Amino acid sequence: MRTASLLSAKGIPCRVLEARDRIGGRVLSQEVIGRPDLGKFDLGPTWFWPRYEHAITGLVHELGLKTFLQYQTGLMVTERSHKEPPQQYALPEGAMESAVRLAGGVQALVDAIAATLPEGIIQLNTRVSSVSENGDGNLVIEVDGGKEEIRARAVIITVPPRLAARNIIFRPELAPDLMISLLNKPTWMASHAKVIAVYKRPFWREQGLSGFATSWAGPLQEIHDASPVTGVGALFGFFGISAKRREELGEERIMKLVKEQLIRLFGPLAGHTLALLYKDWSNDPATAVTEDAQPLQDYPNYGPPVGMQSWDKKIFFAGTETAPTQGGHLEGALRSAERAVSELMEHFQSNESHL
Fold first, then answer.
1. Which ranges carry the Amine oxidase domain (predicted)?
2. For 28-51, what is each residue's pLDDT tens digit?
């Protein structure tokens, strides 16, 4: 979406082809069904760090979006095993970098960017099947298995690199080193799942707890306060169990284990949820491929794909996995959009071409 906004700002016509029925990709700010009054809760990226992430900080300011600090006041809770009770600790001052959240969820940023685009350029439920060169220097983008063909001077691919390598046919084929480079970039979040427990109020704060917890007993490995600015309370957790294990357990069993763990960590009130929101990114076909089922052991070596000499600079790759810094973060996604648009402009200007 950011790529399209940058192109549009330069007067370059473009179209956004989105496979999902919504915009945002791995940004997912979800409401409780039937209770929009409770607000939206992020099942994808949740926060950013202004001290280090200047692209998103500047864009949020430019778009006039409201922000608030991630709640971190109080004790953290640690659960080492089922055999011993959870322990509470006071973190040293400054132990956690202050993170910032967006009022209305990260979807507020996506929607604000989309509002800057010309009307009608976003095409939902449109999956790119192939990208081909034709004889006149243009590209032919085939969507939904051939239901439509779109012609363009250039394509900026913003889906995760592995998804592009596995799901899009390129004619001519991508160079072997480029294909290897794409497949060697693990999709951020693709092996993970996230759950949000929504409550009438953030009761843990009344107990002097920050909502931050870590666990070696599971199923959640790390938990944070996900409450909106005012009103209801919420806790979100990242899972420590693998995608394969989550599939074996099934959602109903997983939610039962989550509730039991939250009660152990935060007391009986944690059992009185208004809702449990769950998203397993590993079974989302618009996010993950087979290789992504394995959890990341180390921070990936992200950055622009190598081997881009082919295709005469008609294909460009953006997305957070292609960012040389802050890969995996919203900041990385925004920086990659800026880089891709800059590379595209430089190429066509140097060749005295017109988009």
1. 3-71, 96-344
2. 999 999 999 999 999 999 999 999
